């Protein structure tokens, strides 16, 4: 079937429409005809032959000298699967009024297409791509590396734009002082631990409160980080994220930033974060986590000593770590029925009585933590009791 046949077979197209498209020298007339013809092709159920003929027409329209005609084509077929891939790429490199509709909406671009356009296409095209409904990690990484601030902020404001942790850190490297960026990052549904750590150091007081409430970081954590007591705050952040949030990612981040210290590992272990402790040993020793787990839990003191030494931890602290691991195992066997919070409280109590020769700073920290947790529990019980009393009174 020829391109001429597909035009004349559509009842909703008049002879005047076809004459306007083929013969009119008036760009406005051709643009109106282009819009109508594209709408007809988009609505119709096309056979394979019809589809090829329709794409011939589209290629012809994409060559029109009038910007108005090419814009009519781009706007009308911006979400259409009928637009050929090569034409979509051609329109993406056209003038801004033509390129923006397809860059923002067309489903025909691959991630690699979009990443290339971000690298070479300039700010307006970057912003158009950033406004797409969804973005992959490939595209957001290209934006993080090459995009102007406005494009990056728009992408960060979209929870359907997926960022790798590396991509998000690159955003912070380039635009970490931007208050607008701070706001949109705080309002994302989820943030990597490393980004929360970086943000809590730089955002305003109001955004810090929002970060604490939306990303499960305790007020104590925020205050401690801002006051530069980062080691203690990192363990508190691990608590807030949950013991199984991403212990491997957290351990890796702390190692590459030079903050995976013996003191931090001991404090985390004494708080029951055994999975974080395993991953920390694995990161420092270079031994896979599965083997590290066996050496910590199934190979006795000799296995623990072997992985401990390979991790390069201080020999003078080994007995403290050994007793902390044994305390964890004993309490897990005795009181496995306890909820995680009470288990952690009991573990700290047992650790403080059985490992009195731990470093003084770590013991002080654990005493402070135990006192804070017990006060919080008393307040919670008082609130629950008061609530029960009010309920009975109302009844």
UniProtKB/TrEMBL annotation:
It comes from the Bacteria. Pfam families: DUF2336. This is Uncharacterized conserved protein, DUF2336 family. It comes from Asticcacaulis taihuensis.
């Amino acid at each position: 079937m020829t391109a001429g046949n597909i035009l004349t077979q559509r009842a909703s197209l008049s002879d005047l429409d076809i004459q306007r498209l083929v013969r009119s020298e008036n760009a406005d007339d051709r643009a109106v005809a282009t819009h109508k013809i594209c709408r007809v092709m988009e609505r119709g159920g096309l056979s394979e032959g019809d589809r090829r003929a329709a794409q011939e027409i589209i290629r012809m329209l994409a060559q029109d000298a009038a910007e108005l005609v090419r814009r009519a084509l781009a706007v009308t077929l911006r979400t259409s699967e009928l637009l050929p891939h090569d034409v979509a790429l051609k329109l993406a490199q056209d003038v801004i009024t033509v390129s923006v509709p397809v860059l923002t909406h067309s489903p025909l671009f691959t991630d690699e297409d979009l990443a290339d356009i971000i690298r070479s296409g300039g700010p307006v095209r970057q912003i158009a791509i950033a406004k797409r409904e969804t973005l992959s990690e490939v595209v957001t990484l290209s934006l993080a590396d090459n995009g102007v601030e406005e494009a990056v902020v728009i992408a960060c404001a979209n929870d359907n734009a997926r960022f790798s942790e590396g991509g998000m850190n690159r955003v912070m490297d380039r635009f970490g002082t931007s208050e607008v960026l701070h706001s949109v990052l705080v309002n994302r549904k989820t943030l990597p631990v490393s980004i929360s750590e970086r943000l809590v150091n730089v955002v305003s007081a109001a955004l810090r409160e929002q970060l604490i409430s939306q990303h499960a970081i305790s007020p104590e954590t925020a205050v401690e980080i801002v006051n530069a007591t980062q080691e203690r705050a990192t363990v508190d952040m691990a608590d807030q994220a949950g013991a199984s949030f991403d212990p491997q990612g957290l351990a890796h981040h702390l190692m590459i930033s030079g903050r995976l210290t013996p003191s931090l590992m001991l404090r985390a272990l004494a708080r029951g974060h055994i999975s974080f402790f395993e991953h920390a040993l694995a990161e420092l020793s270079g031994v896979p986590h599965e083997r590290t787990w066996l050496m910590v839990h199934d190979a006795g003191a000799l296995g623990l000593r072997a992985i401990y030494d390979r991790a390069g931890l201080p020999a003078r602290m080994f007995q403290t770590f050994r007793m902390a691991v044994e305390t964890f195992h004993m309490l897990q066997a005795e009181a496995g029925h306890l909820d995680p919070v009470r288990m952690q409280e009991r573990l700290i109590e047992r650790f403080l009585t059985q490992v009195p020769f731990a470093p003084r700073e770590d013991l002080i920290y654990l005493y402070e933590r135990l006192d804070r947790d017990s006060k919080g529990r008393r307040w919670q019980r008082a609130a629950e009791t008061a609530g029960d009393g009010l309920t009975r009174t109302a009844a």
